[in-house]
Write a structure and sequence with these properties.
6-stranded antiparallel beta sheet; about 40% strand
Length: about 110
């Protein structure tokens, strides 16, 4: 598992996203209204909509193309639709606000 610094929590507005690129992999990093941070692949499994441009509600994001609802905790598409996107662990350092993405090295090499 590789730990990569991806910025500071202050750089992301509440209920918004920031896009991080690691090789060819594009990841959307969301700041939730409760202050939590979640990261998922920035690509809806339906028509490849940019999830970073979607509307965030609670711990879900709605794809901007066709309104698919995706859980930010695990990347699962909510019924009645089906599918999933990769999700990634994010660590926030309490004192500094630095954001760290935890990603398997295989994912980096495959991208």
């Amino acid at each position: 598992m590789k730990r990569i610094r991806i910025g500071n929590i202050a750089e992301i507005a509440e209920k918004r996203a920031r896009v991080v690129r690691i090789g060819a992999l594009e990841i959307a990093v969301f700041k939730l209204s409760d202050g939590g941070v979640k990261a998922i692949e920035n690509r809806c499994p339906h028509k490849a909509g940019k999830l970073s441009e979607g509307i965030v509600c609670d711990h879900h994001v709605f794809c901007p193309l066709h309104d698919w609802k995706i859980d930010l905790n695990d990347g699962l598409v909510q019924a009645p639709d089906e599918g999933c996107v990769a999700s990634f662990a994010v660590e926030v350092e309490e004192k500094s606000g630095e954001l760290w993405l935890h990603i398997e090295e295989e994912r980096i090499l495959a991208s």
